[in-house]
Fold this sequence. Notes:
Elements: E1 5-6, H1 12-21, H2 23-36, E2 59-64, E3 70-74, E4 77-81, E5 86-89, E6 108-111, E7 117-121, E8 124-129, E9 134-140, E10 152-157, E11 163-167, E12 170-175, E13 180-186, E14 192-197, E15 203-207, E16 213-216, E17 226-228, E18 239-243, E19 246-250, E20 256-259, E21 266-269, E22 271-272, E23 275-276, E24 279-284, E25 290-294, E26 297-302, E27 307-312, E28 325-330, E29 336-340, E30 344-349, E31 353-356
Antiparallel strand pairs: 1-27, 2-3, 3-4, 4-5, 6-7, 7-8, 8-9, 10-11, 11-12, 12-13, 14-15, 15-16, 16-17, 18-19, 19-20, 20-21, 22-23, 24-25, 25-26, 26-27, 28-29, 29-30, 30-31
Amino acid sequence: MFLGYTGEMRYTSFVKKIVVKNKLLLFFFFWIVQTGFAQSVDFQCSRLTAYSSLSSQFASKMVQDSIGFLWIATDNGVNRFDGHEIVVYKAYDEGLASTGLVSDQINELFIDSQDRLWVGTPVGISRYDKEYDLFRVIASTTKTNGLEVVDIRCILEDSLGGIIVVSGSGIYAYSEVDERFELLFDSGNLLISSILFDENNGFWLGYFDGYGIDYFSSFDLIAPDNHFDGVSESTSVLKMIMFEGEVWCALGDDGVVVVDPVSKRIKKHYTYDTHKLNVINVAVDKRSNLWLIDHSGLKLYHPDKDSFTAYYNYPEIPSSLRLGVVDLFEDKQGNYYTLHKGDGVYVSFFKIGFQLFN
């Protein structure tokens, strides 16, 4: 059972006591929790019977292509999972070859509207070639193709379907004709950590090292339309996502900040259930649920009550959420995957539960 609870329930210590004292009482208690609090997502957990090995247990990101393959980013290459086995893709000749990944250390995975997989690394970017089942180098330290810095932080599309790459202080557009990157915007001395486009092709920028969040309505602007401060000096904006018209920003030790683009109002979530939030990621699943990912587990947001349901690891219950979650992904079948720092990838099958395949 993948456990979740709301702040009002506060039963963590109670769970630990009744596990030891009475297993029957534990079963009855969780039955009450699940039936009495239907607003939380119900995960039923079990272990996969057949599994293959990842190239690394440090998994950071997952995407799914149109065929159904799941692509997993690790600190030792990219893994493709077809539901039965894993195929590993790695760099050749320390990234100097024209094919393969530029580096085995993966920063970013992105599948564009043409179903092409892009892989960003600290030393360049590669793209998957389906016909030959290999990666081709798009930019690297030896062939930058217009990039001033090749440490790829973000890959995404603009409203017209153009490929946008963030590297260093620059935002670049990829030319399909010239196969080169063109500089669209330079933030000067501010290193960009995160970017988010709105429906009008305006964009939000988050920065490293406490420089806050900016909104620009156009790439032609020198100064932002709006600047949002209120973050600590050393705080970086780790991820931004749009949810119900508001921008949610993961700020690590500073929790999460929510910006209303219309009223310019800022709301902060520093703590949950008396515990300080350390939000390293935010995600919206295919059911339009918003999730916070922090070092203690997962938080499912309930907009109607402006509250969260929390999912934690319980050592006494082997099927509970594993430690070290860094991202959450829902596939096209409605299965949830959690990616972990040092503990691989777990899957919670829709109405079945979490199972280990690494």
